[in-house]
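Lab meeting prep.
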Amino acid sequence: MNRPLVGTLAGALFGAAALAGIAGGPAVAQEAGGQAEFGSIARAGQAPQQGPAQQAAPDFAGTVALSNCSGSLVRMPDSKPGDPGLVLSNGHCLEEGMPKPDQVITDQPSSRGFTLLDAKGGEAAQLKATKLAYATMTDTDVSLYELDSTYEEIEKESGIAPLDVQAEHPEKGKAITVVSGYWKETFSCSLDGFVPELREADWTMKDSLRYTADCKTKGGTSGSPVVDDASGKVVGVNNTRNEDGAECTMNNPCEVDKDGKVTVRHGIAYGQQTYTLTQCVGEGNKVDLSLPDCALPKP
């Protein structure tokens, strides 16, 4: 996976194996206990390669930098200005390490900090969580933190509004941008399609987003919002890439179709859809897995 970053490094990992960051830029972060991170391998010092976007790429306003990953300040369709803010990232970006297969974490106290960015990638504010509202790497790869400040408080202090999460399933062929708050870089391409099952090591994700080859994401882009260029709304959360061409191994996700056929796409990156989150967040911006349309995995 496009994982966390930290320290000095000899070769940064794309979301999975942890290495330290080289001077002048972060590398891929290591997970608790020195385990390999979920994702593909990023080459240290490699300049991002971007394909031409159909429109101007979204800027960094509303994105956040975590200690080891990227993320974004988001609101759901029914969120209110006075609701506590929510920060979206990957499940594999948790400070304590990756959730196990079939593990779902809810309402876990957290004091994790986030750096909120302005349009140019400068620091706009420091945000702090009160709890990890939801996290899993089963069927998807997502974490959602609840903050100690409301959207209106954050906007009053920083001038930054949250990014809106699209409530509908995204469309194939749409121009998208992966916006990394960690690296302060963008990666522009299009949605190439949807993967019934995406397998990486012991984890399986469903209905994953597949990007066209122009989005050459790297370690530290884990958790970045996948933004629809036309609407400016979040349609996914970036999480992995097949780095070495291997089949269904760590850092090398494979696609499995409805008939069980396995396909490996060397160099291709993927994200997880986020419209499913909108069906599981209720009044007061609280994650409520009992809502009738909520299909997220439950503990």
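Slide two material, second protein:
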Amino acid sequence: MTERAPRTRVQRRPVHGVLLLDKPLGLSSNDALQKAKWLLRAEKAGHTGTLDPLASGVLPLCFGAATKFSQLQLDAPKTYEAVALLGVTTTTGDAEGEVLERREVDPAQLTPDRLAAVQQQFTGPIRQVPPMHSALKKDGKALYEYARAGISVERPARDVVIHALKLALTQTEQALPAIKMIVTCSKGTYIRTLGEDIGAALGCGAHLVFLRRIDTGGLGVERCITLAALEAMDEAARTAALEPAESLLAQHVRVTLDSDNAARFLSGVRRRGPWPDAPAVAVFGDEPRALLGVGHIAGGELIPDRLLSPLEIQQILEGTPRLHTS
């Protein structure tokens, strides 16, 4: 019996920043994260909320100090492009499920006025019943586990917000009638369920056949890189492809402190200044310029919330990824 060669151990290193990944179809968010982490030889990594394996598109991956701010993207509005095939409903709400029902669809009945009425119906605060094929838990078990066992359990409807919705009649590659959707929505929205509900409102049923996330919290797909492109790079180029941690803080008010106040803030001490109240503040030191952490301002006090460590700041300054504007 031939002995297997020992597996080469990857030498991990401190890596700080954000990789804006264009996740491919068929790969789970965690698999994508582990692949990128291996390619970068990063010590610490996390993603900003899962993107379904059947969806492609924007998946920000956080490394090192940036993991402290990953929750911000988890809570951020998301924008999706989706296509729902009309006239067919499935057990999962997408193309992976078994067909439940087929109905005839008359595209002539799907007038611009009718689409506009349905579009308005599903814009703003709405309630959704989460799909059985989801990772939500009931009595400690994921809903998809019940679904695989052929069990349907009661799920309470949840409040979500559709910030913007655009519907247009289209066709699939097989020339079948479909609806194209561009959706900007709150955390917790199921696009599969939205597609099903829109199909029901149109009187013919529907299921998703295409789903792509094109923006999360202002981070657009045009700024993203694929795993294949990352793999083709050398290590220096991979590191250069990272955005700095502050790219996750674009919606934060920015405050810059002098060296004395920066050191005190970094120690967790509140600072007083002529600042208006603000719930979300990105705090920087000025010499050298470096992100110190995030906080909030109340009654003229800058109050620390999440801080970088002095070691993390030193490592970032020694190899700071630059903001990419293209």
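Talking points for slide two:
The chain has nine helices and 18 strands.
The mean pLDDT is 90.
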